Amino acid sequence: MYLSFMTFVCPEYELDRALATAIRYGYEAIEPRAQEGHNHGIEVSTTKKERARIKAQFADAGIQMCCLATSCRYAFADAKDRQQMIEATRQHIELAADCGAPTIRVFGGPTPEGMDFADAKKYVSESLAAVADFAKDHDVCVCLETHDAYCRAADAAEVVARVGHPHIAINWDMMHCIRTGETVEEAFGYVRDYVRHTHIHDGTWPADDPGNVTITLMGEGMVPHDEAVKLLASIDYQGALSGEWIAAFEPEEVLAHDAARLREYIAAAEAE
After folding, report:
1. Are 209 and 203 in contact (CB under 8 A)?
2. Quick one: DSSP state of residue 116?
């Protein structure tokens, strides 16, 4: 496993500065966040020529684009809305393939008012199934994040298992699993066969309000990343541990601190 950060930590950075920052703090990869107006220039509107330049820019820096984070989600009652998201997902798959990213991150989304969760799961799995072969043809894996209505790993894994396609997988954000009642061991048990990308960020929340999260530096919150890293090492996980910090810290503070702590966790896991 290796270290990455999402561009939410530095949304104003142009790509060359983001790459230089990764090198400075010893990160092996960057996860660009699309559809949020970040200054890296990696969007579906990016031309083919620009995409080739971006891919070369990453290669020249010796940094991977481990994942393209998107806003795509599928739990809509209207079939036209779902189809629009399917098309948007295909566009982001193409963008990821052109720029050299092996995965994209997507959401199931919140369950609309009046919709049964079982129906929402069905719509999400059908939408993911609709892009699965397209993802395979582009050698990109579509990763459903444990987020929104799918914070529990059990629910995300159910959706992905229903699709049953090797290019539909899970982006494990363990914080959301834990704050909604799963232990890290329970969550890992559900995602272990599907995890291709992992989001890390520590935080705290009140017991009676688990949605009210305060992001903290690694090791100062309630998320046992040391245990999670050991569990990932047990399956020889080859993906990224990608830091997602949204308007929480200055890049210089969190990138240095969390990288050092994660390297300690990785070394301890490898020593066992």
Report:
1. no
2. -
Q: What are the residues whose beta carbons fall under 8 Å from the beta carbon of 34, sequence distance 6 or more?
A: 42, 43, 44, 68, 69, 70, 71, 92, 95
Q: pTM higher than 0.90, yes or no?
A: yes
Over the chain, what is the mean pLDDT? 97
User: In the chain, how long is the greatest CA-to-CA distance?
Assistant: 52
Distance CA 106, CA 40 (A): 19
Topology, domain 2-271: TIM Barrel (3.20.20)
Q: d(Cα 33, Cα 177) in Å, to the nearest integer?
A: 22
**Boundaries of every domain in the chain:** 2-271
User: In the structure, what pLDDT confidence band is assigned to residue 272 with cuts at 50, 70 and 90?
Assistant: confident
pLDDT reported for residue 64: 98
d(CA 254, CA 194): 28
